[in-house]
Amino acid sequence: MKDFKKNNYKKDGYNIDNLINENDLSYYKFFGFINKIIYINNNIQTSTIKKIKKNIKIFKLILICLCFLLINIFPYLKKKQISNLFFGPPTLLNIYITTHKDFINILSSPVYKILCDEKSKLKLKYILPIIETNKDNILFPKSRGYSECSKIYPIWKLYKKGTLKSKYVGINHYRRIFHFKNNIPDLDKIFKNYDAILRKRNHFKVTLWEQFKNCHMSKFLNETIDIIKEKFPEYYQSATNLFKTKWGNFCNIFIMKKEDFIKWGEFVFGVLLEFDKRYNLINDNDISNLIIKEAKNLNKKINIPYQSRLEAFLSERISIIFYQNHFKNVYEIPTLDKRFIYMNLIPKF
Predict the structure, then answer these.
(1) Are 224 and 317 in contact (CB under 8 A)?
(2) Per CATH, the architecture of 90-343 is what?
(3) Which own/partner contact pairs does 179-182 have at CB distance under 8 Å and 24+ positions apart?
(4) Is 251 helix (H, G, I), strand (E, B) or coil?
(5) pLDDT digits over 96-149, tens only?
(6) I want to staple 150 with a disulfide (CB 3.0 to 4.6 A). Which of 51, 139, 221, 319 is the partner?
(7) Residues with Cβ < 8 Å from 216, sequence gap 6 or more?
């Protein structure tokens, strides 16, 4: 039977020995291919493991170097903030110049920035950056009544929020600037012995309260002092000094530490906004009407446009109260007025 099958294969042209050899060959070809893949994969894994081991050695070396570096710079990190190490020191000083119209600029230092309600109001070309203060500003409708304070307010809000950051904050006016101009003094050295830089004081023959009464209307200053007593009692003792002090640092011109500037705004704007609330003052027309009404009650002839800068005049007295309450030592610097600025001269002080 076995021979018959074998003979049948032969008759049909098949050779059983050849058939088995061909099957074996295809088997070996297939599994040989698989073996090659396994071999290549093993080689890849081996090389990858070698690379990983090599990278681990490099990583360990880098880690050791970083630890050594941190140990050596640790004293520096104790004195300086880490953010200063990587991103550099914060801006030292920003001095903001408030204006409502074109002015002759003699300043070029990058510390100066111009505050204006709208850029379109300034037709001249300025090398200093111009910051518009009419956007998201609740005091913009009362910009005449608040004068420079209406432009300082949004800047103060940005400092309080943390959007603006500088170690010191300064305020100048387009017609009153510190006499050092572009030669900025060493502030860190000054602030070692002083709490703030203020405009040189004005002296009067009468008290600050009497001076306000003679130039404006005492009712509004009395109302302001009442607000301070009610809302800011810690400042009330300094507020009573207006009845006996005959000098003061006027015009809201200063350089302060950022933290003190924030506190200044909280006090000054806190009092003024409460004042507006009590008299329902929403815009400049409301302020003018209040002035006219009080002038009629006093039967007093006044310059309405000038007296309508009511909150600006009050802010100067409120600032004086803040200075006297908050600072022990102040460094007073004279300012160049409009005449000296336009002539580009420095007077002798």
Answers:
(1) yes
(2) Alpha-Beta Complex (3.90)
(3) 179/333, 179/334, 179/335, 179/336, 179/346, 179/347, 179/349, 180/333, 181/106, 181/107, 181/109, 181/336, 181/346, 182/107, 182/108, 182/109
(4) coil
(5) 999 999 998 999 999 999 999 999 999 999 999 999 999 999 999 999 999 999
(6) 139
(7) 307, 310, 313
How far from chain centre, in Å, is Cα 202? 31
Q: Please state, in angstroms and as integers, the Cα–Cα distance from residue 79 to each residue in 75, 82, 84, 288, following that order.
A: 7, 9, 10, 53
166 φ/ψ angles, rounded to the nearest 5 degrees: -155, 150
- Start-to-end Cα distance in the chain: 136
The pTM of the full predicted model, rounded to 2 decimals, is: 0.74
The pLDDT tens digits of the residues spanning 40-51 come to: 555 555 565 555
Distance CA 1, CA 274 (A): 121
User: What is the three-class DSSP state of 80?
Assistant: coil
CA distance 308 to 286: 9
State both tokens at 147. Answer: 């004068």
d(CA 324, CA 345): 32
